[in-house]
Design goal:
The protein has 4 helices and 3 strands; from the N terminus they run ββαβααα. The protein is of the alpha+beta class and 94 residues long. The chain has one domain: 3-Layer(aba) Sandwich (GIY-YIG endonuclease). A hairpin with a 2-residue loop joins strand 1 and strand 2.
């Protein structure tokens, strides 16, 4: 079974927010976040997928999720890269 570690980003009032999570069904999880039925932190924002990585082991996925949550520099690098690649996101606000 595959497990995904993902990073979502959102923009509100010109500030960029990020959220890191782990799931077995990535599409379903993003839909839940965007319908305000995901994590409490994600409610009220429109989220876009900026990063994902799959793992065959739940324990490896959990370790990567924890690492990405703690690594602020890596998160900032992913957010900047996504922002530069996606012109749509530059004009996107909630």
């Amino acid at each position: 079974m595959k497990y995904f570690v993902y990073l979502l980003i959102s923009k509100k009032n010109r500030k960029i927010f990020s959220y890191v999570g782990m799931t077995k069904d990535l599409n379903k999880r993003i839909t839940l976040h965007n319908s305000s039925k995901g994590a409490k932190y994600t409610k009220g924002k429109k989220w876009l997928l900026a990063y994902k990585k799959s793992y065959n082991s739940k324990s490896k996925a959990l370790k990567e999720e924890y690492s990405l949550k703690k690594d602020k520099k890596k998160r900032e690098k992913i957010k900047l890269s996504f922002n530069l690649k996606n012109e749509y996101f530059n004009s996107f606000t909630v």
